Input
Amino acid sequence: MTETMRDIRLEKAVVNIGVGDAGERLLKAEKVLQMVTGKKPVRTIAKTTNRDLGIRKGMHIGCKVTLRGKEAEEFVKKAFWIRENRIADYSFDPEGNFSLGITDYTDFPGMKYDPEIGIFGMDVCASISRPGRRVQSRRMMRRRLPKHHRVSKKEGIAFVRTKFGVEVVD
Output
């Protein structure tokens, strides 16, 4: 029997589309996220100015949707299915979180190509943790998380293999 505080869980999944400019393409990207996730997307704002790309600080450059709980698990399962249940080991960070890219939204089941929208890809970033991680981010009585309670890259890979039945490729 496992200890409940040692169990690893999927905390959240963030689905992101970076457009690079505020305008018609951003509205289309929001529409795509709305269709794929069923949630209302939030716009993301540029933190710095990049003259080469024509981006100013404070400019709307993309959109994202944060999914938690069962919705996050279902969406990550769909994303892995699109990626043929494979993920590279370099997609994991040292804390066990992982990211994967999807090249076209029409790969999702039930999505059809709309010539008015065009082709949009997206990034799916999933965050995993153990119960009690809130200790390091809460407002009062904030504490550091002990090293043995953090999720390592190896544990994250093992979690993805067992939970989603995914093959991790070196």
User: Anything to note?
Assistant: The chain has one domain: 4-169.
